[in-house]
Design brief:
16% strand
Length: 510
């Protein structure tokens, strides 16, 4: 089988298992990874926003007094220099920084920017930019971005937007600066988004790598699972081909406890049964050929003798009688073979409730002349009323006839044959007992086999199929048959059949 053929889902169970598992895994892990990634990304952004908001509050609190001092310094400075700057528009927008301790206001703002790793921008209550740690940002311009307006109204907000002064996306937050006289100004902090984006990208890469590794592990597990399933199936297929080609010794013998082990056991049982069935069929054909050959040969021989004894009326009469007997035996044998074949065929008829007492009485009366002719006493102990059984009348008559015929045939003259019946728990029991020659113990297990005869107790008048028919009929209707015998002391055959209600309940409709 080529590699592409093995990968064809229409011909490969392993490939179908892999594809189904891969589809489910991709849907499950893909959805889980996407959901997890979005949650983590949002968490990282929220963490960055919260961290920057905390920094903004720290800076606002730290700049409370410096902003007050700067504003007071500016006011006094412009009052002193009012005449000098009256006509100078450039000086109108000049920024002067108050000395605060050993530093000025600008140095304090720049130090916070370095500590917070962020751009620090100071706005007055009119939302005008007064100071910034980034020289690229112009001052004395109005800024009404969302985070500024939120801070003005004592609310928390953030904004991610493109910064025109640096040409990059940045995260902005703002916080109010409160003084003794109310709102002194606002502080705005911003950081580049590239750091947050790098963390998000690393998170997505880690998540994607873990997903790919998990998918690869699942695919590998699917391959191993598929191989574990298909390898026994390949063995089963090969064994089935060998069995079909005539190798009846083929067995799987798998030591597994799962469903495949059960399947292997079923296959071995099937192969065993097929072997036994074919062996029985071969034996049946051989025995049937032998049994048919004997009467045919006997008829042919007597026909030749009949031709030679044309003038001897006594010998002609004897040969004609013997030919008639052999023909009757041959007809009986063929009839029994047909009955066996019909019993073994799948049931196509629906048996109805049968009055077994009437059936027993009918067969008894029919065989009574045969028993009297053989010099036997045939008695019947059958109640007028017995539980009905689920059986066809023809099968019932065949069953009883073969039991009685067998007893009559192998009981010497002067002996006795009895048939009796009684109701038992859940059914009916029929017993046929004779005072004949009996059956040796070593032959008892085989008496229901086809064409089996006990040499000491059987002559050539029987076909060896009577008891086989009995067993087939009893098995067909869910009953049981057993035999008890002591050599030289007769035979007792006991048949038990379920009553109608129990047969229907137990599904014995055959």
């Amino acid at each position: 089988m080529s590699f592409l053929t093995r990968l064809d889902p229409r011909r490969s169970l392993t490939t179908r298992i892999i594809l189904v598992n891969l589809t489910l895994i991709l849907l499950a892990l893909g959805s889980l990874a996407l959901w997890t990634g979005m949650r983590l990304q949002r968490s990282l952004l929220e963490e960055a926003e919260a961290e920057l908001e905390v920094r903004a509050l720290i800076v606002a609190n730290g700049l409370r007094e410096p902003v007050q001092q700067q504003l007071a310094y500016e006011a006094s400075y412009y009052d002193r220099e009012d005449d000098e700057h009256e006509d100078d528009e450039d000086e109108e927008h000049a920024v002067v920084f108050a000395p605060i301790g050993d530093r000025d206001f600008k140095a304090i703002v720049d130090s916070y920017a370095r500590e917070m790793h962020a751009r620090v921008t100071i706005l007055d209550p009119n939302l005008t930019v007064r100071y910034t740690s980034d020289p690229r940002v112009p001052v004395h311009v109005e800024d009404k971005h969302p985070e500024i307006l939120a801070a003005l109204h004592q609310q928390d907000d953030h904004d991610i937007r493109y910064d025109e002064w640096t040409g990059e996306d940045r995260l902005f937050v703002a916080a109010p600066i409160w003084g003794s006289d109310g709102l002194e100004g606002l502080v705005q902090l911003s950081v580049p988004m590239k750091e947050v984006t790098a963390r998000v990208r690393a998170m997505w890469l880690t998540l994607l790598t873990a997903t790919v590794v998990l998918i690869a592990l699942f695919v590998l597990a699917s391959i191993l699972l598929g191989e574990q399933i298909t390898r026994p199936l390949h063995r089963l297929t090969a064994a089935a081909h060998r069995l079909a080609e005539g190798d009846l010794s083929t067995r799987l013998e798998m030591d597994r406890q799962d469903e495949l082990g059960t399947l292997a056991e079923a296959f071995d049982h099937m192969a065993e049964e097929i072997s036994h069935l074919l062996a029985r069929e071969r034996a049946f054909v051989a025995n049937a050929s032998h049994e048919l050959r004997s009467p045919v040969t006997s008829i042919q021989l007597r026909a030749e003798l009949l031709e030679m004894a044309a003038a001897d009326e006594a010998r002609r009469a004897r040969y004609i009688h013997e030919i008639r007997e052999e023909a009757e035996n041959l007809g009986q044998l063929l009839q029994q073979l047909l009955e066996l074949d019909e019993l073994q065929a799948p049931a196509t008829r629906s048996p109805a409730a049968l009055d077994i007492a009437a059936c027993l009485q009918k067969v008894y009366e029919r065989l009574l002349p045969q028993a009297e002719h053989a010099g036997l006493t045939l008695t019947a102990d059958v109640p007028a009323s017995l539980p009905s059984v689920l059986m066809e009348a023809r099968d019932c008559e065949t069953l009883v006839r073969n039991l009685l015929d067998n007893a009559i045939k192998y009981t010497p003259a002067g002996g006795q044959v009895q048939i009796r019946a009684r109701a038992i728990d859940k059914g009916v029991e029929v017993v046929v007992r004779d005072t004949g020659v009996g059956i040796p113990a070593q032959d008892l297990p085989h008496i229901f086999d086809r064409f089996y005869r006990v040499d000491k107790a059987r002559d050539r008048t029987g076909s060896g199929l009577g008891l086989a028919l009995v067993k087939e009929i009893v098995d067909r209707y869910g009953g049981e048959v057993r035999v008890e015998s002591t050599e030289g002391a007769g035979v007792t055959m006991t048949v038990r059949l379920p009553a109608v209600s129990y047969a229907e309940h137990e599904g014995e409709l055959l």
